[in-house]
Amino acid sequence: MSPERINPAELSPPTGFSHAVTATGGRLVFLAGQTALDGAGKVVGDTLPEQFERALTNLLAALAAAGGAPADLARVTVYAVDVAAYREHARELGRIWRALAGRDFPAMAVIGVVRLWDEQAMVELDGIAVVEQGLS
Predict the structure, then answer these.
(1) pTM exceeding the 0.85 threshold for the entire prediction
(2) All residues at 6 or more sequence positions from 14 whose CB lies less than 8 Å from its CB, including other chains
(3) Local confidence band at 135 (pLDDT 50, 70, 90 cut-offs)
(4) For 88-106, what is each residue's pLDDT tens digit?
(5) DSSP characters for 27-85?
(6) Spatial distance between the Cα atoms of 16 and 24, rounded to a whole number of angstroms
(7) How does DSSP assign 3-18, residue by residue?
(8) Cα–Cα distance between 129 and 119 in angstroms, integer?
(9) Long-range Cβ contact pairs of 115-119 (< 8 A, separation 24 or more)
(10) Closest to 59 in 3D by CA, of 47, 70, 67
(11) Could you tell me which of 67, 131, 65, 70 has the C-alpha nearest to residue 99?
């Protein structure tokens, strides 16, 4: 089982995401929102890219604990307190994504929010993965 990425020719070319992802025969893993919290519960990173890297690392750690890998991600939502800054750093954030999660992009959305639960957080990521049956 592996997710199938679908990018119809009639839609604009996706950059860093897939338009649709299908998966069958697996176990759904719902990943809670992750910010740039360290093991002590403190937000780390002074810049959006630093916080994005930590939040993605945390999301992937939760996924790995559930028996999954980055390629199993079917859907990721990014919540950003400053969408303009997110767009400004898009290339760097893409490099961070590829370094940590590879090029099997999930369906994604970036949503602007007023603030996050962790007040110092600039970004939060949550997701849904489809992991092979029997893994944990």
Answers:
(1) yes
(2) 7, 105
(3) very low
(4) 999 999 999 999 999 989 9
(5) EEEEEEEE-SB-TTS-B--SSHHHHHHHHHHHHHHHHHHTT--GGGEEEEEEEES-HHH
(6) 23
(7) PEEE--TTSPPPSSSB
(8) 27
(9) 115/81, 116/35, 116/79, 116/81, 117/33, 117/35, 118/35, 118/36, 118/37, 118/43
(10) 70
(11) 70
Around 69, how many Cα atoms within 13 Å sit in the side-chain half-sphere?
9
Read off the tokens for 75.
């859907």
Judged by DSSP in three states, 103 sits in coil
Question: What is the token pair recorded at 20?
Answer: 């649709």
